[in-house]
């Protein structure tokens, strides 16, 4: 299976419409890939909080239409990263879109863990409330976004739902790039799954982006890693490795669930 991660540069000098057209064009060029992945909030920039409301779209808005056509034209499964979505009541969400090769919407996922510690995304956007997986012919994707990477229980839930390939679009800051690599590898090892982590390049809202998109195998080995500039990372991987790894080293079978709550011990 061939995956292409498009580590697009979010430049505030480029309009949202121009970047949307450019991203769709980059997707159309990936005709030899099976799966293409875009980063988190690439239309606005993940830290451009002041612009979330201005550029928020209905689920089936202009970005939806552009990506749907691009997926169909390229004949690829497309994880369109995420966009600022507004619902009918005007509530904002950080929403990912996944398209089938015929351009139809296969799934959408609203980010569960919002970053900001009572600021920014954490107060401006609503939280998703469901885990989402997507069945491809070769593998089952588990969807997560950026800050979700710090919460292993979400990924365990995705694995319990059948996920074999964990896709994580992000707008990860450069100052915590070491965490990005470490956490992506940890989620791969503990879940014995592939991790496809696609970040943005550039600097937006004064926050330098880490870039360094990477693909990690179920043993935690980095199969490929991008640099810090705009780049397309294309990797061939074997989805059957997941089952082989889980069979060879069946650690997931040794999970102990439903343990009793700890009791207070008095001297």
UniProtKB/TrEMBL annotation:
It is an enzyme of class 3 (hydrolase). Keywords: Hydrolase. Its EC number is 3.5.1.100. Residues 1-239 form the CN hydrolase domain. Pfam families: CN_hydrolase. Belongs to the carbon-nitrogen hydrolase superfamily. NIT1/NIT2 family. PANTHER family: DEAMINATED GLUTATHIONE AMIDASE, NITRILASE-RELATED. This is Hydrolase. It comes from Streptomyces griseus. The gene is ramA_2.
